[in-house]
């Protein structure tokens, strides 16, 4: 991994993500392991303290996959909410896991199953629960 900026994670998100990681099946193990590394290196803080420019769970994020020169807008969700979220990307998807905790302007080299890598850049956070006072979403 060549580039990983510091990340900040909402304490409630961290607890929920750890439960997902602990329950991951073999199919999700690669992403779960990557996500667990992020939780271990991230700064975990209370939801009320999350800066407005940080990607948290349920944030709608505009980001660019620099590897494929493709900009996207997605809402980072837990797997159970994927079907109900029109522009959702699961935090247990390889690209979704790479978004958590990043700030606007951050770039990260993120591993993909099979040995590839994606370079992601956060361009904007269009909606964030903590910014809207929704600390327990």
Automatic annotation (TrEMBL):
It comes from the Bacteria. InterPro entries: GreA/GreB_C_sf, Rnk_N, Tscrpt_elong_fac_GreA/B_C, Tscrpt_elong_fac_GreA/B_fam. Residues 51-125 form the Transcription elongation factor GreA/GreB C-terminal domain. Keywords: Kinase, Transferase. Residues 5-44 form the Regulator of nucleoside diphosphate kinase N-terminal domain. It holds the Pfam family Rnk_N. PANTHER family: REGULATOR OF NUCLEOSIDE DIPHOSPHATE KINASE (PTHR30437:SF5), TRANSCRIPTION ELONGATION FACTOR GREA (PTHR30437). This is Nucleoside diphosphate kinase regulator. It comes from Billgrantia antri.
């Amino acid at each position: 991994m060549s580039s990983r900026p510091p990340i900040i994670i909402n304490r409630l998100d961290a607890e929920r993500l750890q439960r997902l990681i602990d329950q991951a099946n073999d199919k999700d193990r690669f992403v779960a392991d990557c996500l667990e590394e992020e939780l271990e290196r991230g700064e975990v803080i209370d939801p009320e303290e999350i800066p407005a420019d940080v990607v948290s769970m349920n944030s709608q994020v505009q980001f660019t996959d620099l590897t494929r020169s493709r900009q996207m807008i997605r809402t980072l969700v837990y797997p159970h909410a994927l079907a109900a979220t029109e522009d959702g990307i699961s935090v247990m998807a390889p690209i979704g896991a790479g978004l958590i905790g990043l700030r606007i302007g951050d770039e990260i080299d993120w591993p993909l199953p099979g040995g590839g890598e994606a370079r992601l850049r956060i361009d904007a956070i269009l909606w964030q629960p903590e910014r809207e006072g929704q600390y327990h979403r």
